[in-house]
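Appendix B, Record 12. Input sequence as logged:
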Amino acid sequence: MPRKAILLFISGSLLALLTSCATPGAPQPPSLQLPRPVEDLNFVRKGSRIVLSWTPPTQTTEHLGLRRLGATYICRSIGRYPVNACEIVKRLSPADVALVTDKKREQAVFEDVLPADVISGAGFAAYSIEVFNDRGRSAGLSNQLRVPLAPTLPAPQDLRATVTAQGPELQWTAMAAPALPNLTFEYRVLRRLEGVPNFSPVQDVRADTAGIKLLIDPGFEWGKQYEYKVVPVTQISGSAPPEVEGDDSPVVSLLVKDVFPPAVPTGVQAVFSSVGQKPFIDLTWSPNTEADLAGYDVYRHEAAGESVKITAQPVKAPSFRDDRVQPGARYFYAVVAVDLRGNQSTRSEEASETVPAADQP
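Logged structural output:
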């Protein structure tokens, strides 16, 4: 084969090879940039307010990065669940979507207010959202929420807190609860230490009748500063969630300071004894029953003398032996109860006893 023909053959083969390597595959359709539907829509109901929260989508339905979000529709349907299309309550532009940081992740939030005429003893509202891209297209509704429409009692506005000998006493005025099937109405008392962010439940009080409600906090500690509030709660039989909270009462603050003395000791008796030993007077009395009792102080005086405490520290038992007595003297005794915070009762009734003179048998 002539040299020129060989060169032409080689050049043609290389061109064919290069052309075959550059041949593109089947054309790919352009991404529609549809935001992935929200899957973690959640809610909290507080009275007539519904607070929705969700994670804004960052990917498309094709698992690609989402360039720009468009509007978000808030959807609410009364009495129908599930729904196939959005009944729009609110259209939010990207700038209208409120964002908060929750547990180190960004969450969008929206608060809806239920119309008064839909809150009843039964029924529910279905909530969902629909997120669009910047060209006004979406991939459909989010997960759907079923929110009970049970009513709640109004929050008491006259919550009062006082310190009693038994502990903090809470009082408020309750409304009569409506008689509705499958619903139970209660007031939930909550407490927190001043400066602590979260409240903890103390106890629930039934709200069957109108009038003054009263609760003694059983779990307090003396010397602490507490804040209290009362929240109406509606229990719903056979529902998920099983309860709905109403609005909070105003918060009241209370320093639980113990200024309450123990009860006055009773039954004080004094008995002299000296047979075969140094003379002494034994005192006994009925024991106090306070849980925070620290002990008893004993006071003594003679007929014309001033009463003096003769115990260096409060004695624990309801008895005391006075061995610093003189022959021929008459002594008068009184007992004072003392609690752990230093509160003292008034003195008991006196008991007296005479030490015989030295020449008496």
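Helices lie at 3-21.
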